[in-house]
Amino acid sequence: NMKVLLAASECSPLVKVGGVADVVGSLPIALTQYGIDVRIVIPFYKDLADKMLSRQANIKIDKIDEIQVKYGQKNLKVELYSTFLPGTEIIVYLIKNDDLITNGGIYFSPETMASPEAELERFALFSKVIGQYFGTPNKIFYPDVIHCNDWHTGMVPQVLQSISRFRDVPEQPRTIFTIHNLAYQGFSKLEVASKLELDIKNDRTLKWDAEDDNLDFVLQGVVGSDYITTVSKKYSEEIQTPEFGEGLHEILNAREARLEGILNGISYEVFNPMTDREIDFQYSTGDLKAGKQKNKEALLKSLGLEISNRPLLGIISRLAHQKGLDLVAESLDEIMEMGYSVVILGTGDPQLEMIFKEYNSKTQFNKRYKALITFSEKTARQIYAASDMFLVPSRYEPCGLTQMIAMKYGSVPVVRGTGGLYDTVEENVTGYVYTGFSKVDMLKALKRAFSDFTSNKAKWERIVINGVNRDYSWKESAKKYITLYKKATALKQSY
Fold first, then answer.
1. Given pLDDT bands bounded at 50, 70 and 90, which one contains residue 163?
2. Angle between helices 377-386 and 288-302 (to 10 degrees)
3. How far is CA 472 from CA 316, 398, 400, in A?
4. Which of 61, 227, 294, 453 pairs with 93 at a CA distance of 20 to 30 A?
């Protein structure tokens, strides 16, 4: 049985800030079905620890070990706890250390630790613990592969290599490093390397990275791991170009033979209009049209909008630069004049929030436009179920899950052809795709969708059904990861 340890900063439903949590919470379930012994390791954040150790969370948790870890000049006390991924038999290890890991909030949250530097130290120590504990024979779990995710665990491969430099470790775990979003890199001061006992002078890549007086955790993951993956095939090509490479395109290019794009999946246990408890009316492929119509009327009514046969365009997004919502803000008049009803859900950039909110009070649109500046999972599902079209105008999109969810609910995606959007939506087959990042290109695609919806019913219905029938579950992607794990374990110990 192959043993895999998935290392990350978050895991849904235990702790979720971004999309990484969904991957870490669902990929293992698919891997387990293929007989992989997969376990997860995340930091034991303070609010998680407070909840779980006071037994409020009603989740079984055990303390399984306590070790000392040298970090800088100090020996720090680290405790290991284990629990299960809720609803499964999959073990989750929680790393507790009161100096760095378990004080302060969850990263990126307002109550996070005092400075990003402390945040980097937190994940440097987290990486050191993973390498030192699980990277050497131990009584708990000695994996064949450690699968690292994003900058938070980018230092793990270097820690492993530094351990094997000082002592002979039989069959040390191989490493996979997955880039979920290259824009977040984690730059730290150089002293972090010495605190981790890494030897900058004698390590070529560390030395090269250190020339600008900082360490880049993602760069370390890219050069240190056996294989690199990213979350769609197209994004794996894009990040090798200056436009998307965030300064690392040359390195990624140099490692192209070890770089693979594997699409994230979605969970159809969660996203399924036949069983979704959050939507007003459940429906199946057999009664798709009627089911969507009922949901559409219910949503429009609850938002105080007019019920008409206009197409309803849904947008669910962080209101952020990456997501291209500034283009939508500039185009609202044209979109409304084309004849759409529009519902927007999301929070983010205060400037964009303001613009979208202002349109709520424009009298000429007040019966067919609504922006909800909030985030609610329930409303999100209602929009998937009610909308005819679903717009994703991203500048770049490593994978993107909303377009896959929309398809399952019979809402036709209109997307910019970048990253995972390019890989999952096909022009005139499952949706509408435009390539240039401009207002004109986006409006043209919305126009094509509008015209098929209103005057080419047969084609429209075919596109809807094609989307509903696409399978973006974790099944296929899990198989690809397993193939990669096997490739990695087949590599001879080269150092």
1. confident
2. 130
3. 19, 15, 12
4. 227
Q: pLDDT tens digits for 343-358?
A: 999 999 999 999 999 9
At 156, list the tokens.
Answer: 């793990």
Q: Which helix (DSSP H) or strand (DSSP E) does residue 338 occupy?
A: helix 325-338
Min mean pLDDT across 139-143, 227-231, 266-270 is at: 266-270
Position with higher pLDDT, 199 vs 175: 175
Quote the pLDDT of residue 111.
43
Tokens of 47: 């609010």
Residue 209: name the closest of 196, 197, 224, 195 by CA: 224
320 burial class (0-12, 13-18, 19+ CB within 10 angstroms)?
middle
Higher pLDDT, 214 or 101: 101
Gap between the Cα atoms of 149 and 164, Å rounded? 22
Token pair, residue 208, equals: 């090269």
Token pair recorded at residue 393: 């105008």
Residues in contact with 293: Cβ distance below 8 Å, sequence separation at least 6, in sequence order: none
DSSP 98: T
Q: Helix or strand or coil: residue 361?
A: coil
Q: How far apart are CA 214 and CA 195, in angstroms?
A: 14
